[in-house]
Amino acid sequence: MAPALITPFDLAIAACLILACAVASQILALKTGRSIVIAALRMSVQLLLIGNVLLFVFGQTSLFLTFAVLAVILCAGTFEAGNRQTSRMAPRWHYGIAGASILFGAALATSMGFLTSLRPHPLFAARATIPMAGLIIGNVMNATSLTLNSLLTAVTRDRSAIEARILLGATRLKALEDPIRKALRTALIPTLNQMSAAGLVTLPGIMTGQLLAGMSPVAASRYQIVLMSLVIFGNLAGATLAAVLTCLHLTDERGRLRLERVG
Amino acid sequence: MSKNTGLIADELRSERVGPVTFHVAHGECLAITGASGSGKSLLLRLVADLDPHSGTLILDSENSLSMSGHIWRQRVAYFPAEPGWWSENVSDHIADTPQARTLIEAVGLPERILTAEIRGLSTGERQRLALVRGLLHGPKVLLLDEPTSALDPQSISLVEDLITRQKHEGRIIVLVSHNAAQVERLADRRTILRDGRLEEVA
Fold it and tell me: Which value does ipTM take for this structure?
């Protein structure tokens, strides 16, 4: 089966659906009509832009271009993860920690996938690397963002509990182990929910795409299993690094809690 | 008592406190008094190395910087007026050992408290429980910040007896208290923290 080609007429129908949502939002006084239109415009511009960029990059055989696109995705993910935080670390450390953690988790999971089960040919070919690494970066970004948010909230809220452990002689990581565990559990919840519901409630995006592109359902399922395993592996790696770096930043070399570093 | 043993704070200073210099020998209790907001609790935090500071802290000839912060705090324990709890179960804070039972009895708490939940305890019970929790780690120095502020007269007497026993066993005690009679009963020397500086009272 050949994948369905979306014509300008199909896009016009999609635009009508967006407009219908915006109008319904106005009628229901949801005050989201403007946001729906802006988000739809932003999505369309971004996707058409990346579509054309990928068209160009896939036409080349440049490893440099492939990694340049991934660098842009990583920067956008870092900005998004850092920007989502309600409590922030001065001066802008939340961006640095988010970036390092996303890079670590995504690089580890992508490399693991490419060197073992996925093995694209040639290795790091743009057509395989960019969508795969992009998907993993997006997931690790969410996990990292949730970790930072949970940890920063817990550290400011539970200061006396954490300090109780510090003043009884606990090391800084021991004193912060409860907030770290909670943050890592929180970070994994969306992926765990996705894994539990996969195939039963929803068909995951990549599997749906592959089915639409004509791949065998069993082959698509196997691919999805490998992919979800890589995602949760990358998420846990990125979230753990984010938690450890955050804890190290919010304490000093003498093991003291330094909450003045939360802005 | 040699000047090389005991606790020495030399030119201890942070943004709001100091410079402060004092020496407390083993088996001695130094009381720090002063108006509310004068920085008494902050000074105890500095001695426990809980906040950044300049100056020198020495315990039995060992500089605090010669060891990790957490090792220093295992030896120099700070007991805040409002203790923190990382778990709701008392058993997560205090293991059921003969030593724990002895201390719990000494401060007038019932043994069944070992299976209780923190949220069900009164402020006074929590204050005494925190004292037991800290003493079980075997510190050499006790930095006590208003240790009986939430207690009735009978419990105050029990806690003061325990502090006195700790002193006689050779522990170094630095006591912050607004209770003049308590300072009179427990302290060997009394100081006043005024304008960030410690003044000895004759």
Answer: 0.89
- Would A103 be classed as within a structural domain? yes
- Of A164, A172, A178, nearest to B84 by CB-CB distance is A164
Same domain, A36 and A108: no
The matching CATH number, chosen from 2.40.10.10, 2.40.300.10, 2.40.40.20, 3.40.50.300, for B7-201 is 3.40.50.300
Query: Is the pLDDT reported for residue A203 higher than 80?
Result: no
Do the Cβ atoms of B84 and A162 come within 8 Å?
Answer: yes
Cβ contact, residue pair A168, B51, below 8 Å:
no
Residues from chain A that touch B137, judged by Cβ atoms under 8 A, are: 168-169
- pLDDT attached to residue A95: 87
Based on the domain organization, do A182 and A197 belong to the same domain?
yes
pLDDT attached to residue A94: 85
| pLDDT tens profile B100-120 | 999 999 999 998 999 999 999
Q: Does residue A153 lie in a domain region?
A: yes
Q: Is the pLDDT of residue A87 over 80?
A: no
Which pLDDT score is estimated for B1? 45
Residue A180 belongs to what domain range? Answer: 62-261
B5 sits in the region (left: phi over 0; alpha: psi -120 to 50; else beta) called beta
In this prediction, the residues of chain B whose per-residue pLDDT falls under 50 are 1
Helix A217-249 to helix A177-197 angle, to the nearest 10 degrees? Answer: 170
- Give the nearest chain B residue to A254 (CA atoms): B69
Please tell me the total count of domains within chain A: 2
Return the number of other C-beta atoms located less than 10 Å from residue B106's C-beta. 17
CA dihedral over B40, B44, B47, B53, signed as positive or negative? negative
Residue A257, classed as helix, strand or coil, is: strand
